[in-house]
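TASK: fixed-backbone design
INPUT:
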């Protein structure tokens, strides 16, 4: 690891993990074997990054976020406190015969979170699922199907309730221009077509 990486004494970082320059790993966090963390990430207290998980640059995992393998997070992703990214289609502790399941007894499936997307506090992404670029998952939501880019989703199960821009603010419809949305924070405009939002 580079000298620019900061790892607190109570954190556990496997020697085979790759940790990018400028990354901070806080107390009691655990980074498992062969995980890859990009530059300038922040791994909060008690967060967990599973074996082989890949994080892009400037990813923030807040306290006690759990990211199970084989998750992939793009650049600039935010994972709120106590959020969970699962990895099992059919979670069971034992086989149908009652024997303890081992690693070879199940196939891990991934949650993929694309560039700039945010997962709110205590949200759960049930694998396999993909959260699109710059989407926003509300606190406490349970994501059971793919989330389109720029979508704002909430509830159990999560459903789209609006659109957000790169700044994270909820977009507002532009009067007199059907399908055009504007960010109240930045003024950036977006176009909705065929149920998807695109930057203009």
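OUTPUT:
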């Amino acid at each position: 690891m580079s000298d620019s990486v900061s790892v607190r004494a109570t954190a556990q970082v496997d020697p085979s993990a790759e940790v990018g320059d400028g990354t901070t790993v806080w107390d009691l966090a655990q980074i498992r074997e062969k995980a890859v963390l990009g530059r300038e990430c922040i791994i909060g207290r008690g967060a967990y990054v599973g074996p082989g998980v890949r994080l892009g640059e400037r990813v923030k995992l807040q306290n006690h976020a759990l990211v199970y393998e084989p998750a992939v997070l793009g650049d600039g992703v935010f994972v709120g406190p106590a959020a969970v990214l699962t990895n099992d289609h059919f979670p069971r502790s034992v086989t149908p015969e009652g024997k303890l399941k081992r690693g070879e007894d199940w196939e891990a499936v991934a949650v993929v979170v694309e560039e700039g997307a945010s997962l709110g506090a205590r949200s759960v992404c049930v694998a396999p699922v993909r959260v699109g670029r710059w989407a926003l998952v509300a606190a406490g939501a349970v994501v059971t199907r793919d989330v389109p880019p720029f979508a704002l989703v909430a509830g159990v199960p999560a459903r789209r309730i609006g659109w957000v821009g790169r700044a994270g603010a909820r977009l507002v419809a532009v009067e007199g221009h059907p399908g055009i949305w504007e960010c109240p924070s930045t003024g950036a405009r977006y176009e909705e077509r065929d149920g998807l939002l695109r930057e203009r």
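COMMENT: Residues 6-164 form a domain with the UDP N-Acetylglucosamine Acyltransferase; domain 1 fold (CATH 2.160.10.10).
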